[in-house]
Design goal:
The protein has 14 helices and 15 strands. It has 390 residues and is an alpha/beta fold. It has a single domain, classed as TIM Barrel. The strands form four sheets. It has an eight-stranded parallel barrel. Strands 2-4-5 form a three-stranded antiparallel beta sheet, with no helix packed on it. The chain has a two-stranded antiparallel sheet with strand order 1-3.
């Protein structure tokens, strides 16, 4: 089952033929998935408006007219050019002293961050400027100033690989060396897309050209790790563990060694020693994930092979057993912690403790759907780690 998307992330064009190259993948299609704030939804053409595009305004489909085109352009300008007294980053309020002090006590090899950062519910805590819509690059300027954040998850890359222009905008918003954990396009990791067999599953050439290429050219300084997220494989789509290990090994052999990679499984049956041996052979990390259908992070820690690389990744996403859609209903607008998860917190801290013992870097990412407010969860983790709980 595919993970639920955030509202407004749009829909995917159906798979109609194998994608041989990045040019065929990204250049031949005339649509790209866009998040569409402000009441407009749909797939925006990558170059210009066309007669085939019918936007939805206030939930109703409307034919394209000159008036609607002008309306969209004007409202888009309003979103992107909205003035603020904090347009200059230097004019932003200084971070709270207690957060600065707490952040200074976190070991340098421990990097806390969140999976996706464009949430209005964090206004007053992480964000102090007024934003119209997502504005991910502009929000990153404030995000990176937050004293407890040392990494960030680019989860939107799962649905479309970011362009060089997008990555360059992110790079301009980040301090030098700030590492990002980027999900890999699901065209490479999904056995099926919208129930259609995916001919590009584990296509190393497509990954290198369409995903890795832009990062190598404009975002290398921030390419902390690429996460290959493999959704649950069921029925005839689920390989035997030995066959899976062989298939993954063939794929990883083809990847450049000057980037870091991590594998996130959501099929418990594939968490075998053979899988772990493949990760160790290629220096690829296991992703400890708290997810609805996975063993707890604590149970994953009991497996002998789950630290196969010179770094580790953990993602606190959902309470085990809880569906994504249910968490969204419970926790939106993500402005405060609504349901603490002490077991998940303790498991994440165990990952950190083991990473410190091994003297390796730990990238610890938290999602709003775990407790209701990812920054609050990270504050609690940092306080527990440093003995600053009150």
């Amino acid at each position: 089952m595919r993970a639920a998307r955030r509202v407004g992330e749009g829909t995917r064009a159906p798979i109609v033929a194998p994608l041989r190259t990045a040019a065929q993948t990204t250049g031949s299609s005339n649509t790209r998935r866009k998040r569409s704030p402000g009441g407009v939804s749909g797939s925006l053409p990558s170059s210009k408006w066309g007669p085939e595009y019918i936007p939805k305004i206030d939930g109703a489909a409307r034919p394209v007219t000159r008036e609607i085109t002008c309306w969209y352009i004007l409202t888009s300008m309003a979103r992107t050019q909205h003035p603020s007294i904090f347009d200059d980053v230097a004019a932003l309020p200084q971070p709270a002293r207690d957060l600065v002090e707490l952040g200074s006590r976190i070991p340098s090899s421990v990097r806390f961050g969140v999976s996706t950062w464009t949430y209005d519910g964090w206004t007053g805590d992480v964000y102090h400027r007024a934003y119209r819509g997502a504005q991910p690059a502009r929000r990153l300027e404030e995000y990176a100033r937050y004293p407890l954040f040392r990494t960030v998850g680019i989860d939107s890359a799962y649905y479309d690989p970011p362009s060089e222009e997008v990555l360059a905008a992110y790079a301009r918003s980040l301090p030098p060396g700030f590492p990002c954990v980027s999900k890999v396009w699901d065209r490479i990791t999904a056995k099926r897309i919208d129930r259609v067999s995916n001919p590009d599953f584990l296509n190393a050439d497509l990954f290198k050209e369409a995903v890795l290429g832009p990062y190598a050219r404009v975002f290398r300084d921030h390419a902390g790790c690429f996460v290959f997220e493999f959704q649950a494989m069921r029925g005839k789509d689920r390989p035997e563990p030995a066959a899976w290990a062989e298939e993954l090994d063939r794929f990883l052999r083809q990847l450049p060694r000057d980037f870091r990679y991590a594998i996130e499984l959501r099929t418990p049956e594939l968490l075998t020693e053979g899988h772990g041996a493949v990760l160790a052979a290629h220096g690829v990390a296991h992703v400890f994930n708290s997810w609805s259908e996975m063993p707890t992070i604590g149970e994953q820690l009991e497996l002998p092979w789950t630290f196969p690389a010179g770094f580790t990744v953990a993602r606190g996403l959902l309470r085990p057993g809880r569906r994504f859609a249910d968490a969204v209903k419970l926790f939106e607008p993500y402005d405060r912690i609504r349901e603490p998860q002490p077991e998940v917190r303790q498991d994440l801290l165990r990952v950190v403790a083991e990473a410190l013992r091994r003297r390796i870097e730990a990238l610890i990412l938290v999602n709003n759907r775990l407790e209701g407010n990812a920054p609050g969860t990270i504050r609690a983790l940092a306080a527990a780690l440093t003995g600053d709980e009150s």
